[in-house]
Amino acid sequence: MFEKILIANRGEIALRIQRACKELGIKTVAVHSTADEDAMHVRLADESVCIGPAPAAQSYLDIPSLVAACEITGAEAVHPGYGFLSENARFADILDEHKVAFIGPTAEHIRLMGDKIAAKETAQRLGIPVVPGSDGAVGSNEEAAEVAEKIGFPLLVKASSGGGGRGMKLAETAEDLPTALSTARSEAKSAFGDDAVYLEKYLKKPRHIEVQVLGDGLGHAVHLGERDCSLQRRHQKVFEEAPSPALNSEERARIGAIVAKAVADLKYRGVGTVEFLYENGEFYFIEMNTRLQVEHPVTEMITGLDLVIEQIRTASGAPLALSQDDIQFSGHAIECRINAENPKTFTPSPGTISYFHTPGGLGVRVDSGVYQGYTIPPYYDSLIGKLIVHGKNRNECLMRLRRALSEFVIDGIETTIPLFSELISEPDIVNGIYDIHWLEKYLKRP
Asked: Domain of 141: which CATH number?
């Protein structure tokens, strides 16, 4: 086991990783930009190192500064959290060259799953069902038109690299295809430095279902159930729950077994998430995230497992101590992402928090790195916390969430708390009959 871990991140996830390390008796090193010198993860770490000015490109994304911080502090491993360098294969390679462990999968697996085309081909080879689409990147518009005719419209033009909805365009008809191709290529080139795109069948009312997996890199893997992340705005998740209200126990067991076997065959190390679109009883692979997810707490709540501790153990070379039969699911959990944004326009709302009161009680968890008097800088993602609740069943969970939201007070800035208070009273949400387009339609209501 490691004795000292550097956490290459900030905010709530940096604090979350610190907690796991402390429970394992591992010392922590916090890195921070000049804008984050008063952040909670910096205050609570055993050591801290300033790695640059406020812009992420000059601090949290600066690989030489992070490596230097490891050398200065003697950190044996780096936990990247999510975002920033968490899925950067070059970073993993450089750490390996400096004899520092990367707490995550191998660079080879990061590269493989970071290329959406290669990931889809690998998924097919491993027996995972995929969305009908092109066999790889499409070149000319003429080639794309021929492939599109075989797939059928509507379809999506998607960037081979990256994610988060960038480089993704819908073509309803053949006439829409040239513009969709041009726009998607341009966005992909700008965002990821790679303008390769591929085509994929567009499903009209799918759910977004993801399966959490854990492997030890030695050919052993388990699945930890699924999460439903269908409430999305601009392809960004805002509300997640586990288990999915759309699946029955047979479907859950079937897709879990398929994914666990595939991950074991791949000899994947650490936690990962295999994401699907689900429609009419069928699952269609879309991508695999090779890192800890923002929404990992809902899985922790229904399994009782600490996913960060499992990441650290597998990265240290320990074999998987769990079998599939050891994984027991209990109750229902929901997470709301609390952002520093206007709840209607989603305009970012940086500023100083004048009052901060979190909800409590049975089955309520708040993961946040902010505090009363803390000033939210304007340079980073607007996520300031996550409210996670657990109940014996979905109805109890929703009632507990309603109560917890009413107790959550953040003054001085705008947040998305009012939006969630509205959403959990909507009949479709209460009944669990929403899809990935539901929230966008809801937000367009007069």
From this structure: 3.30.1490.20
**How far, in Å, CA of 185 to CA of 196, rounded?**
7
In a domain, residue 169? The reply is yes
Q: What is the pLDDT, as a whole number, of residue 162? A: 66
Residues 6+ away with beta carbon under 8 Å from 138: 144, 147, 181, 197, 198, 199
* Residue 394 a catalytic site member: no
Tokens (6 digits) for 371 = 């505090």
- Binned at pLDDT 50, 70 and 90, residue 132 comes out as confident
- CA-nearest of 106, 103, 90 to 2 is 103
Which CATH number do you get for residue 32? 3.40.50.20
The answer to whether residues 193 and 231 belong to one domain is: no
pLDDT at res. 136: 85
On whether both 217 and 174 belong to a single domain, the answer is no
Residues 37 and 84 in one domain: yes
Token pair 């657990």 is found at 390
Name the DSSP class of 303.
Answer: H
Task: Give the bridge partners for 365, in sequence order.
Answer: 388
DSSP E strands: which ranges in 290-348? 332-339
pTM of the entire predicted model: 0.90
The total of structural domains in the chain comes to: 3
- Neighbouring CB atoms inside 10 A of 413's CB total 20
The C-alpha torsion from 216 through 276 and 8 to 46, rounded to 10°, is -70
Judgement on whether residues 230 and 81 belong to the same structural domain of the protein: no
Q: Which of 291, 313, 365, 394 is catalytic?
A: 291
